[in-house]
Amino acid sequence: MTESSRKPRVLLVAATTGYQTQAFADAAAREDIEIDLATDRCHILDDPWGDRAHALRFEDAEGSAGVLARSRDLQGGVGWDGVIAAGDRPAYVAAVAAARLGIPFHPPDAVAACGNKFLSRERFRAAGLAVPEYFSLPLETDPATAAAQAVFPCVLKPLGLSGSRGVIRANDTTEFVDAFERIRALLHLPEIRRVHRPEDRFIQVERFIPGREFALEGIVTAGNLRVLALFDKPDPLDGPFFEETIYITPSRTPEPVQRAIEETTARAVHALGLWHGPIHAEMRVNDAGVWMLEVAARPIGGLCARVLPGLEELILRHAAGRPLGGIRLKDRAAGVMMVPIPAAGIYSGVAGVEDAAAIPGIGEVVITAKEGQSLVPLPEGNSYLGFLFANGPHSHAVETALHAAHHALRFDVRTTLPVI
Known about the structure:
By secondary structure, this protein is of the alpha+beta class. Among the domains are: 9-112, Rossmann fold (3-Layer(aba) Sandwich), CATH 3.40.50; 133-207, Dna Ligase, domain 1, CATH 3.30.1490.20; 332-420, D-amino Acid Aminotransferase, Chain A, domain 1 (2-Layer Sandwich), CATH 3.30.470.20. The chain is built from twelve helices and 19 strands. The longest helix has 18 residues, at 255-272.
């Protein structure tokens, strides 16, 4: 087989249990692109999942890059044309590996800044973007003393966690101390401590930014942003916790505001140094303008990506170096609801799924919680009960359908009794 006739080959770095892994595999088959999986799993067992994946340790990005380089060398130097990352931790591993292997992707220092709220704020400020007053504190700080530095209302957040996990609003000193202690306890959990990330030893304090929240999906080529979708988040996100529920596209906000969001996101991409690959950005908008919350060096996560059919194919084409052509992911309004966990307890089942699915506009009802599963809501938790997907003639119809479907579901969550 000549180089010109060789099928493009793309490396996918993803968590073992990631929802998007199969979606990318299916998209690769449709696009006639060869895809190799690299994931965090035991390197001792011989292909336990039967997928011939490269076994990496995400906490060791340099070591993981070495594993992939050796694999390439064992294959006669035939490597990958591109790399894709599904998730924040995989994105950094992918960046380090891409730099070592000479594959186009976002630079490691840019991805590291994306995953550190203090570093990203520093880069946004240096680029002249609007940022709130902010400072970071070591976990060992006395919160009662630190509260004197805060401007209320403020938001406390872990530097390195994503998905609103550990993000808490405080309106006064008492709430500040309570929030700090709660986040400190979260960051001391074994699942977080064993990763040994320096950013998990700090808590960031920011002045609360009022306004409406949006999300933007895009793809970057040679540092230039191309917008794929702009999502409204119609539910208010004012705290004390910031659980995201509904994403709807196209946005209903006026065109000048949409242009401002897109222009500000492009400036944020340059400020961070992102270069090649998908991005997912979050921002708030008020009378003072657009305030970037964060930019992630990966696409929209998990099952939420289903709200944009064709997204995986587009990302694969971009990674493989194929032309994207006219991008058109959605012809109709679409939305997704991430069904929140109402209270801590044990999941025992759900009723009303058929009623929810029968609501006009609802395309799919996916319950991801498993019977007997221990449920932990935000700010400590990082999962949902499931996902609702809707389509419609306009965004308002989509939002109405999602709320109606959620109302039709009746979850049975059994409260656990404390051990005496």
